[in-house]
Amino acid sequence: MSEGLSGRIVRIVSNQEVLINKGTDDGVSVGEIFVVISSETEEVKDEATDEVLGKIRKVKIPLKVTEASERMSLLHTYRTVSVNVGGEGLGLGRMFAAPKWETQDEEINTDAEFAEDYVEVGDHVTSYGFTKTDPPSVLFVK
Predict the structure, then answer these.
(1) Quick check: 34 pLDDT over 90?
(2) 11 lies in a domain?
(3) Does residue 88 form part of some domain?
(4) What's the pLDDT tens digit per position in 50-76?
């Protein structure tokens, strides 16, 4: 396990997979969780005293290692989301139909125009270890 190991995304393979520049030579293991983190840090202040308490980075998305070679690893989304593929949408045909919910794999957001949590080549990743729970939505900057 390589908890705390940092690397970068070197290729976006699909809307659910990326390659990173760390592999088994660095201690990466299949099943390990990495998080894609924002490059900007945010200061956290105590509003009562105006004292800076520290800095954080936002987590864009957690990903799981599905394959690892010596110098790179393939990471895949592992969480699911419920999506309405039935009624109550746009258009007369869907407007009056009943909702139909499906569970789908979460997708990596690669569209910078619509969200600040978009993922791109060069983004930082850091290992979060093996866990059955989701990583936090922010990480402390040391």
Answers:
(1) yes
(2) yes
(3) no
(4) 999 999 999 999 999 999 999 999 999
